[in-house]
Amino acid sequence: MKLEALSFGGMTARRPIVQGGMGVGVSLSSLAGNVAKHGGVGTISGVHPGYREPDFKENPFKANMRAIGKELEKAKEIAPDGIIGFNYMTVINHYEEYVKEAMAAGADFIVSGAGLPVNLAKYAAGTKSAILPIVSSARALKLIVKNWQRVDRLPDAVVVEGPLAGGHLGFKYSDMVGGTFDSLEDCLTDVLGYVRELEEANGVKIPVIAGGGVRTHADVERLVKLGAAGVQVGTKFVATEECDAALPFKQAYLNSTPQEVRLIESPVGLAARAIDNPFLQRVDEMGRIPVQKCYQCMNHCKPAETKYCISQALIDSVQGKEGLVFCGANAHELKELSTVEKVMKELCGE
User: Fold this and answer.
1) What is the pLDDT of residues 276-319, one digit of tens each?
2) Using CA atoms, how far apart are residues 315 and 322, in angstroms rounded to an integer?
3) Are the C-beta atoms of residues 148 and 121 closer than 8 Å to each other?
4) What is the CB neighbour count within 10 angstroms for residue 27?
């Protein structure tokens, strides 16, 4: 099956592959730039992109704001004509400032989830950046669109994330553990029904991108036949030479077993998927790991009570130390390091 190009926001990617945003630091300029270079859509994670800045611990906000432009510039050097944007969680502190900074720096798009990005259209007013919400149901998308239409804006594309995705998930922890959740195919069909109504009512085309557990060309074909215009892939890109994470982080994927890929309830209050390791085992045994340094990443986080500092746990892991290793449900299937070009060709059946 020959795949069609993916067009949204006046841009066209010759391969309909969107690389998912993975933070902290897993998808920065190298991974995003190389995915864009090979015809896909590259996504820089907006979660602490400045964690390597010398003043990060003293002023995380200032370091992150500075890193936004730096990472985008480096990615654009790799793929001058590529499509490159940022992923932002709505629950983070300074969400508005970060999003606006990314748009001002020239981000081609902003994709946003982990909560409902109801104000994203307002922040995007007067910019050229495309805006894409991440949802798991038509109900969530309707709430977002209702707010966006107040400023006369519709999504340029929609990302539908299913239950097999990595990191934070758009499903209740109890549903994930109990198995009472919709499949990606069900989520996609649900969202497509509403998007078709939107398209007809407004005379526009809104591509729907499906993600969560996508790892083969057969997966891509199946989702495209159901109506997806493209797919979002994260986990498979981690095990590439170009991924921004340290080698031990990638090795954790390559060495993982099906039993080690587990569901957790993260300090953010959302269900998430990660690789079982000594860090998570310590959390299970101790109940909580006291926070040594707060990075002010979320308003509702209480350092004295939270199970552990998720920022520090993610920063440690991406640097190759013991920490929190987010992953998709099929991480254990990865057995060798690859390249972005090979992964892109595999997914497209080339």
Assistant:
1) 999 999 999 999 999 999 888 887 788 889 999 999 999 999 99
2) 10
3) yes
4) 31
> How far apart are the C-alpha atoms of 320 and 322, rounded to whole Å?
7
56 contacts 63 by C-beta, under 8 angstroms: yes
> Which secondary structure element, helix H or strand E, spans residue 233, and what is its range?
strand 230-233
The list of the chain residues with pLDDT below 70 reads none
Reduce the DSSP state of residue 17 to 3 states and report it: strand
75 alpha carbon, distance to own chain's centre: 17
**Which bin fits 276, alpha (ψ -120 to 50), beta or left (φ > 0)?**
beta
What letter represents residue 191's amino acid? V
- Contact by Cβ (8 Å): 343, 350: no
- Cα–Cα distances (Å) from 336 to 84, 155, 161, 208, 252, in that order, read 27, 37, 26, 31, 11
Structure tokens at 344: 């892109």
CA distance 149 to 135: 17
Question: Nearest Cα to 8, choosing from 207, 161, 192?
Answer: 207
Q: What is the pLDDT of residue 140?
A: 97
Buried b (16+ CB within 10 A) or exposed e, 58-93: eebbebbbbbbbbbbeebbebbeebbbbbbbbbbbb
Please name every residue paired with 161 in a beta bridge, in sequence order, or none if there are none: 211
Q: What CA dihedral angle connects 177, 178, 179 and 181, to 10 degrees?
A: -90
Q: Measure the CA–CA gap between 253 and 274, rounded to whole angstroms.
A: 10
Question: What is each CA distance from 141 to 20, 149, 225, 272, in whole angstroms?
Answer: 19, 12, 22, 21
Position 281 scores a pLDDT of 97
The rounded distance, in Å, linking the Cα atoms of 41 and 107 is 12
* Average pLDDT across the chain, whole number: 96
